[in-house]
TrEMBL record:
GO molecular function, one term: mRNA binding
PROSITE patterns named among the record's database cross-references: S1
SMART domains: S1 (SM00316)
GO biological process: translation
Signal peptide start-end: 1-18
Protein name as it appears in the record: S1 motif domain-containing protein
Residues covered by the S1 motif domain: 125-192, 213-285
Entry keyword set: Signal
InterPro entries: NA-bd_OB-fold, Ribos_protein_bS1-like, S1_domain
Top-level taxonomic group: Eukaryota
Length: 296
């Protein structure tokens, strides 16, 4: 009797468990298959050009409203952005745009290095054919076949006001320039006739017109324990740290005064600009992100 009762209970338990759990498995699998089916249909509709037009109008309205809300949220986030963060972000975008423009430029010099003349031999009042190497806010650097490029200041480009030198010249252009002064290796150029000057009146470069990566020529005025002060045409001399000197890997461990640079003419590139203090830091190595100048 006991055995029959036990057997009956086991049969009932087995039947009950089958009844309770089996439908749940089928329901789960059917839901999974339904979800996969819906996702596949959504993919096919999104790929179809008529998917948007054929979708539910309420769904389209909800999608558009969601996009508008996201755009409004981004705008509000930028409005709440701290001034320092905003300034840093805009400065980064400006530098990124400037570097991209310079990277896209490439100029090939037509006169070999060994055939170039000395600037001190340039005659006052002569006309030279030059090639525009780079355009900056305060003018353009012109290759006139000499040992270094010469600055054509923006005020010597036209008698009328121009917003930026790039409105008249571009890198790679070949132009005719007049030598308005030439004294002790310092040469001034002009696009205007009858602009000869008997005395040197050097053009002062405004610090706010300088950008990172701009090429400058200057004369080393003096050396300190940390580097060199160089006259580059700005109201205050630019500073070249000894670690930014092109010979630093070779001269490492040598005091800057032992470089023997005072009075030398050097070519440098702008590294940092502090407009508020009017200070400029330069480096002796050409920045890697600038286009290379080839020689034919």
């Amino acid at each position: 009797m006991n055995h029959s009762i036990l057997l009956t209970l086991l049969v009932l338990i087995h039947a009950t468990s089958s009844f309770l759990f089996t439908p749940q498995v089928h329901t789960s699998s059917s839901c999974t298959s339904l979800t996969v089916k819906i996702s596949k249909e959504s993919e096919e509709e999104s790929r179809s050009p008529d998917a948007w037009a054929g979708s539910n109008p309420k769904l389209r309205t909800a999608i558009v409203r969601n996009r508008q809300n996201r755009a409004r949220a981004r705008q509000n986030k930028q409005k709440r952005e701290p001034k320092t963060t905003r300034k840093r972000r805009l400065l980064f975008l400006h530098k990124e745009t400037t570097v991209k423009k310079k990277r896209d430029l490439r100029v090939t010099r037509t006169v070999p290095l060994e055939e170039r003349a000395m600037l001190k031999d340039v005659k006052l009042g002569s006309t030279l054919n030059g090639q525009v190497i780079s355009v900056v806010n305060f003018g353009a650097f012109i290759d006139v076949g000499c040992e270094k490029d010469v600055l054509l200041h923006v005020k010597d480009m036209s008698e009328e006001f121009i917003s930026h030198p790039s409105t008249l010249v571009s890198p790679g252009d070949t132009i005719s320039v007049y030598v308005k002064y030439s004294q002790d290796g310092k040469v001034g150029l002009s696009l205007l006739e009858n602009s000869i000057q008997e005395e040197v009146d050097e053009d002062v470069i405004q610090v706010e017109d300088l950008d990172e990566g701009d090429e400058l020529w200057g004369v080393v005025l003096r050396s300190t324990n940390f580097g060199f002060f160089i006259s580059v045409g700005t109201s205050q001399p630019a500073f070249l740290h000894f670690m930014d000197h092109s010979d630093f890997p070779v001269m490492e461990g040598t005091h800057p005064k032992d470089y023997g640079m005072e009075g030398e003419k050097v070519r440098v590139w702008v590294k940092e600009v502090d407009v508020e203090k009017g200070r400029v830091k330069v480096q002796g190595n050409r920045p890697d992100d600038l286009p290379r100048l080839g020689w034919e």
